[in-house]
């Protein structure tokens, strides 16, 4: 069976629907989400409803947690865009979706694939640490027990591999995994990519070959941009979608 792994939808319904259509066309039997269903984007309730309708198993992301909990947001620890969008998301998020986000787990294990799913770093999930360098990846991979660990959070797809005592970076295209190696794989972002490619990103994992394939999907960005402006969210949130930053 093939599975799809998505992440960082960020309330972008148009990107989510386009990715879901591509997942169906690729014949995936099940889809998992690495969190941040909400935040930044103009359709948090619609995104939550779609993920729940399709019974997509989801881990909790930092935006999910911040939107769902009734604790003061620490503005100093958030970018202005994140702070303003989260305050808006809190106002519009339905009680039902808030409760669902609050109860999401920090990790999902996939023993049949020898894989685990997190939003950020698996070493301390609730700290929401960004893995951006070889040295950070090395630290995670040395402690990793599963062959594959899938993460999101940075909105940038990457593959770090620990093999024969060395950590190397591979291009996020088609990865042939080996059981003696360890892989830390960032699947990128569905709704707000930051790798200078505005298309939605996700991965497919083949249960038979253990190959990991990165997919990029076009969507109607202009519709999402219009909805952002209709909700009077910061215009920068609309502009950055076409830039992939």
Brief sketch in words of this structure:
The protein is of the alpha/beta class. Helices cover 33% and strands 22% of the residues. The strands form two sheets. A six-stranded mixed beta sheet has the order 3-2-1-11-12-9. The chain has a six-stranded mixed beta sheet with strand order 4-5-6-10-7-8.
Question: How does this structure look, described?
Answer:
It is a single chain. Strands 3-2-1-11-12-9 form a 6-stranded mixed beta sheet. A 6-stranded mixed beta sheet has the order 4-5-6-10-7-8. It has 245 residues and is α/β, with parallel strands linked by helices. It has 8 helices and 12 strands. The model has no long low-confidence stretch (mean pLDDT 96). 33% of the residues lie in helices and 22% in strands. It has one domain: Purple Acid Phosphatase, chain A, domain 2, CATH 3.60.21. A hairpin with a 4-residue loop joins strand 4 and strand 5. Helix 3 packs across helix 5 and helix 7 runs antiparallel to helix 8.
């Amino acid at each position: 069976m093939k599975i799809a792994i998505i992440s960082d939808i960020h309330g972008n319904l148009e990107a989510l629907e386009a990715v879901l259509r591509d997942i169906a066309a690729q014949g995936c039997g099940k889809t998992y989400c690495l969190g941040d269903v909400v935040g930044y984007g103009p359709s948090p309730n619609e995104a939550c409803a779609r993920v729940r309708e399709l019974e997509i198993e989801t881990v909790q992301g930092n935006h999910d947690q911040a939107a769902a909990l009734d604790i003061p947001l620490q503005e100093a620890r958030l970018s202005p865009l994140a702070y303003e969008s989260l305050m808006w998301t809190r106002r519009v998020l339905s009680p039902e979706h808030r409760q669902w986000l609050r109860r999401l787990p920090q990790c999902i294990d996939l023993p049949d694939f020898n894989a685990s799913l997190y939003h950020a770093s698996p070493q301390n999930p609730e700290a929401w640490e960004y893995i951006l360098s070889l040295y950070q990846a090395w630290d995670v991979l040395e402690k990793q027990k599963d062959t594959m660990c899938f993460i999101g959070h940075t909105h940038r797809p990457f593959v770090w591999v620990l093999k024969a005592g060395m950590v190397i970076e591979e291009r996020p295209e088609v990865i042939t995994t080996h059981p003696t190696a360890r892989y830390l794989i960032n699947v990128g972002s569905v709704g707000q990519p930051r790798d200078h490619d505005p298309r939605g990103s996700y991965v497919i994992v083949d249960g038979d070959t253990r190959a990991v394939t990165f997919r990029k999907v076009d969507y109607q960005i202009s519709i999402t941009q219009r909805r952002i402006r209709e909700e009077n969210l910061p215009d920068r949130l609309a502009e950055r979608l076409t830039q992939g930053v």
